[in-house]
Amino acid sequence: MKAYLLKKHGNPFVLKMEDAPDPIPIKNEVRVKLKHIGINYAEILSRKGLYGWAPQKPYIPGMEGFGEIDSIGDEVTKYKVGDNVIVGAQFGSYAEKMVIPEGQALKPFAHLTDIENSAIAINGLTAWIALMNLARLKKTDKVLIQAAGGGVGTMAVQIAKAFGNTVYGTAGSDKKLELLSQLGIDIGINYRKDDFANVIKSKTNNGVDVVLEMVGGDVYKKSVDLLNPFGRIMIMGFAGLDLKKWNPYSWYKTWNDLPKTKLSHLAENSYSVMASHLGYLLPNEKLLNSIWNDFSVFTNKHNLKPIVGHTFNFEDLPKAHELMESRNSQGKIVIAIF
Ligand SMILES: NC(=O)c1ccc[n+]([C@@H]2O[C@H](COP(=O)([O-])OP(=O)(O)OC[C@H]3O[C@@H](n4cnc5c(N)ncnc54)[C@H](OP(=O)(O)O)[C@@H]3O)[C@@H](O)[C@H]2O)c1
Q: pLDDT tens per residue, the chain (338 residues)?
């Protein structure tokens, strides 16, 4: 099969397509012939060598995809050859075929296209876990979503709007704000033009109750300051992380920009800081399937669809990384294999 093997860290073009042996499923594993794969920001970080839980090189990156099972281990009970599944994994989807335990193969959505089915698992689960499992959203909560025009952001906006919340979001271009207004956002802020905290303070009589934070640095600090009493801020990422291993100044800046909190500050302002990392949850098959079930019921009920902003051919996967890193992508980037 063809696959991208990460042999050294660096710019998008360290990713090179090459021949690799077809993986063989054993025991409870299924092999999925991938049709489409979704690109995630975490894969940019792992390509650069900045992702803590990435495996030792060389390895095939890629956390998700959609395809057809073409081979199964002898202990598989849930699926058969020919079934279509969504794959959520820690790595391995930048390939024509990948093997996963059957418990990590997720049921696709009937109302979504193949492309959309490849684009929903990681972003949808991240947004769902942040808003529902961590923040335990109430309909009366005012919700602020940072990086709202991206993959996780556009899913989070849709989930919170469908739940009935007032939703504010930030993005770095007017084009992304247009997309967010189509998704029904109440106030969208281009943070390159306006200070998001000032806009929220001036346009609302109040602060916000829930923040989905994925940037870090000043964005985190200003978001905390906007929280109402009993507010909750969910740290789901820090896209602003700018660690250059060879530059000690950047070590200090990175440390300073990582979200931090003090118990005394929490107590004085009555708010919670929470975090979750899907990479650690995916191998917990029972929990994963229970969360997927809740998310699926909600997604079907509200007819939610991931926003696929860009598609690339398999050979152009490095260009997809380049686009995501440029901060100009909107919604999800998908790679078509077949
Ligand atoms: N905890 C988890 O389990 C989990 C799972 C999936 C993703 N994540 C995290 O969620 C975030 C979004 O992931 P995604 O895959 O959906 O990516 P994405 O949002 O589609 O792309 C990243 C976006 O972040 C925004 N951003 C803001 N400040 C940035 C900065 N200083 N540098 C780079 N980008 C910046 C950019 O949009 P604007 O400039 O328009 O804001 C950029 O387009 C990432 O931080 C990712 O690591 C966490």
A: 999 999 999 999 999 999 999 999 999 999 999 999 999 999 999 999 988 778 889 999 999 999 999 999 999 999 999 999 999 999 999 999 999 999 999 999 999 999 999 999 999 999 999 999 999 999 999 999 999 999 999 999 999 999 999 999 999 999 999 999 999 999 999 999 999 999 999 988 889 999 999 999 999 999 999 999 999 999 999 998 888 877 888 888 888 889 999 999 999 999 999 999 998 898 898 999 999 999 999 999 999 999 999 999 999 999 999 999 999 999 999 999 97
Q: Which residue has the tokens 């109302």?
A: 111
CATH number attached to the domain at 122-277: 3.40.50.720
Kindly tell me the burial class for residue 136, based on how many C-beta atoms sit within 10 Å of its own C-beta (0-12, 13-18, 19 or more): exposed
End-to-end CA distance of the chain: 13
Ligand 1 centroid from CA 179, angstroms? 16
Q: How many CB atoms lie within 10 A of CB 94?
A: 27
Distance from the CA of 46 to the center of ligand 1, in angstroms? 14
Pocket lining: 46 vs ligand 1, CB cutoff 6 Å: no
Q: Which residue from 37, 39, 40 has its CB within 8 A of the most atoms of ligand 1, so it is best to mutate?
A: 40
Q: Which top CATH class is 2-120+305-336? A: alpha beta
**What is the distance of C-alpha 10 from the center of its chain?**
21
**Model confidence pTM above 0.70:** yes
List the chain domain ranges.
Answer: 2-120+305-336, 122-277
